Amino acid sequence: MTHERPGEPPSPRIRLDQPGIRRPKLLPAYDPEAFGRLSERVARFIGTGRFLVWMTVIVVVWVLWNISAPGHLRWDEYPFIFLTLALSLQASYAAPLILLAQNRQADRDRVNLEQDRKQNERSIADTEYLTREIAALRMGLGEVATRDWIRSELEDLVRELDERRDLFPSGGPGRSDEPDR
């Protein structure tokens, strides 16, 4: 139900099943992944020995130049204010970039751990399945006559026949065993 005043045209209905009209954006669009990759590269570079060596060289040259150069050639008219400003600016940008890189690494680690956990679950399930199958095969083999079992049964039969022959000899050279049949 709409609340319209008499004499005003009806307001257009908003449809949720259709996309709305695109509004112009005030800020330019950017790719967050590209920015994240760039910040990681900068953070990795800031954390290297090469960066520290170059920064030390620049600071030493800066200080030596501003101490030994003639007054009109110095970069810093006041004692090292511009150097302090540059180093503070570098530190103020480095800390958030390093934090962003750490957060992205933590996200990647979380995804990798989740994938590892799922892989481990699949491996455990496969191992349990194979264990059950091997147990079923062993139980089935317990009921099957194996070569060793048949051999031992045949040896027992041969032994039993030998014992019967000793107990019931089959007649000598002139005797027949026909009455026994």
TrEMBL record:
<feature type="transmembrane region" description="Helical">
    <location>
        <begin position="80"/>
        <end position="100"/>
    </location>
</feature>
<keyword id="KW-0812">Transmembrane</keyword>
<dbReference type="InterPro" id="IPR010406">
    <property type="entry name" value="DUF1003"/>
</dbReference>
<dbReference type="Pfam" id="PF06210">
    <property type="entry name" value="DUF1003"/>
</dbReference>
<feature type="transmembrane region" description="Helical">
    <location>
        <begin position="51"/>
        <end position="68"/>
    </location>
</feature>
<protein>
    <submittedName>
        <fullName>DUF1003 domain-containing protein</fullName>
    </submittedName>
</protein>
<keyword id="KW-0472">Membrane</keyword>
<keyword id="KW-1133">Transmembrane helix</keyword>
